[in-house]
């Protein structure tokens, strides 16, 4: 889900299995910029029909959105909500193993080990209205 902490495995692919992760990232909720992304090219989604051909355009747009729905966007800069509650501004969000999967916990800077800091996905700068932490993204 958007805001989830994910792992990156040794093939550079996303994983939700903690043991397979060599690094950790957060799925973006609303990316401002997308770099190195070729999923929306004509080779992938076909040539966009003229909007005046409403039936063909509607079919193309539905296929485009279906293909886009399986593409994960990862936050590599800026601020992003992360699906961790109970945090306070100033804490770090550290990925942890949760029954083999990946979740996150908030930790005070004074309580972090070097390994936890290096694994962390960001520092909490605010709390969203729904209680989730908003972090400044830290990329390893």
Q: Can you give a write-up of this model?
A:
By secondary structure, the protein is an alpha+beta fold. It has 3 helices and 9 strands. The strands form 2 sheets. It has a 5-stranded antiparallel beta sheet with strand order 5-9-8-6-7. The relative contact order is 0.21.
Q: What is the terminal-to-terminal distance?
A: 21 Å
Choose one word for the global shape.
Answer: elongated
Q: Averaging pLDDT over every residue, what do you get? A: 89
Helix percent reads 10-25%
Beta-strand proportion: 25-35%
Number of strands: 9
What is the overall number of helices? 3
Task: Profile the largest sheet.
Answer: 5 strands, antiparallel
What's the order of the H and E elements? EEEHHEEEEHEE
Short structural description:
With 140 residues, the protein is of the alpha+beta class. It is 18% helix and 33% strand.
What keywords describe this structure?
single chain, 4-stranded antiparallel β-sheet, 3 helices, alpha+beta, 5-stranded antiparallel β-sheet, elongated
Write the layout of secondary structure elements.
Elements lengths: L4 E4 L5 E2 L7 E5 L14 H4 L8 H15 L5 E2 L3 E7 L6 E7 L2 E7 L6 H6 L2 E6 L4 E6 L3
Antiparallel strand pairs: 1-2, 1-3, 3-4, 5-9, 6-7, 6-8, 8-9
